[in-house]
Amino acid sequence: MSRLATGLHRLRSRSPWEVLWSALASCGLVLFSQLAVAMVPRLFPSLSLIAMLPIAGLVFFAAIVLGRLWRRFIGVAASAPLFVLFNILLMWGVYVFVIRRETSSLLDMLINAECALLLWGLYRILSGDPGIVACDPSYLEEAGCKDFVEAIYPSEKLPTLSRVRQCNCCKANVRGYDHHCPAFGTCIGQKNHRLFMALLTGFVVAESTYTMCSTKYITRCINSGTIRSENPVSLNMVISTMLFSILQVLWQIVFLMWHIYCICFNIKTDEWLKGEIFQINWKRYPEFQMREQPQSDSEVKFVNPYDKGLLCNIREFLKPK
């Protein structure tokens, strides 16, 4: 499958007008949610930035819920990848037009490079192939199964389909399937897992850098006494995008630590947890099940047959077979 095949496949089912309306809905949702968060420093000017953080989180969540209800009412579906894209562009735009003049040249080069790399990485992961495995009739004959889904679950039936899982969201069969990423609108599998980790790390670094730059801008405005002369809309947008970046970094760090843990022990998210409800999922796959007495009904215990030790696991992630 070519690099653009996955992206083209998703676009074929939509007309140009549907794509345009989806883009406008995503852009509107970004502006609405950011303007809602921008009201927090305006309504609570006496609070510290740390105290504003939980309020901003609640306001942002409420704005997203209201935005989704409005989209259902008008019948236009927004796109999560476009929502991510417009948030990057908004953050970058606020930096360039407001914060940049208070930033050193080195830091300016750094944050511009980070934002550009985020856009490039987002394009790559949207247009790339996660490792989709086509349904070949020869696989079914070799495994003695009626359908492809039945063939991919018991890996011992057909070693060539080892760790090929079916995504519940897009129904694709993906080699090395980890999870379906709603933010990027694509599966994360063997071919794009490293790019996903690089992109996730890039978001943490870029948003942390932006938070540092915006904090310096606000501090300098306060210390120089020019905060009252600043455009209140621009200042509130700086604070709102900074609060949004902090909220993003908080959950992204936890998510990044989880994926690093999975890489170190060579286990996929789908093999450990089930979807959005976080139920134990390893009992679904026979290779992770072990009984103390194979011929009895003794309790099934978890065993990871893919764990080859820390260094080997990291090497296999970096250079998959």
TrEMBL record:
It is a multi-pass membrane protein. It comes from the Eukaryota. It is an enzyme of class 2 (transferase). Its EC number is 2.3.1.225. Keywords: Acyltransferase, Membrane, Transferase, Transmembrane, Transmembrane helix. PROSITE patterns: DHHC. GO terms for cellular component: endoplasmic reticulum; Golgi apparatus; membrane. The keyword Metal-binding does not apply. It catalyses: L-cysteinyl-[protein] + hexadecanoyl-CoA = S-hexadecanoyl-L-cysteinyl-[protein] + CoA. Residues 160-274 form the Palmitoyltransferase DHHC domain. Belongs to the DHHC palmitoyltransferase family. The DHHC domain is required for palmitoyltransferase activity. This is S-acyltransferase.
